[in-house]
Amino acid sequence: MYDPTIFENLKVAFENHVYDLDNINHEINITNRVDRMNFSIMARDFAIRFTLVDQQDVTAEIVLEASVEELAAEILEQPDKNPGCSLLLRFYKHVQNVPKQCNEIEQALTDIWELDSKLTQTLSFVYEQGATSYLDIIEVTFDHKINEQHMDDIADFLDYVLETLEVLNDI
């Protein structure tokens, strides 16, 4: 009998919660979904992107990843391993006043997430269009792995993501 991995169980849980926010609650619009098996490194990743229904200038993306080491440790039931998945949260926002807005973004995310993890902002623009606006890719990398014991935290996690989207739309 097929026994789903931690990755599969978490992926389904995230999907269910996010699709409920879209289809039942009508709070978000899902804009993209990726479910990939990378055969070159034998890893899995799942990503889902969405915006708030009434504020579509900022996009959130939740990324769940499982390496071959994590998958193997779980499937082979290695007793000395504690398998799990990596969780990454990404936001996409256009900014014009880089020093001011990026500082406000950093402060807002630190307040919301009480960050003990890594926050990175990467700015880019299309060369031929000039630099009147920059795309700010804001990444929150969580230091600890997650597993099925964190399933009950998904709804609260998504509440924080929605709050972050609202705050980022106001910056």
Describe the structure.
There is one protein chain. By secondary structure, this protein is an alpha+beta fold. It has helices at 6-23, 68-75, 98-113, 154-170; strands at 28-38, 43-52, 59-66, 86-95, 118-124, 134-141. β1 and β2 form a beta hairpin. α3 (98-113) runs antiparallel to α4. It is globular, with a radius of gyration of 17 Å.
| Main pleated sheet | 6 strands, antiparallel
Question: Rg from C-alpha positions?
Answer: 17 Å
Low-confidence stretches: none
Q: Average pLDDT, to the nearest integer?
A: 93
Number of helix segments? Answer: 4
Oligomer: single chain
Q: How large is the share of residues in beta strands?
A: 25-35%
Helix percent reads 25-40%
In short:
With 171 residues, the chain is an alpha+beta fold. It has helices at 6-23, 68-75, 98-113, 154-170, and strands spanning 28-38, 43-52, 59-66, 86-95, 118-124, 134-141.
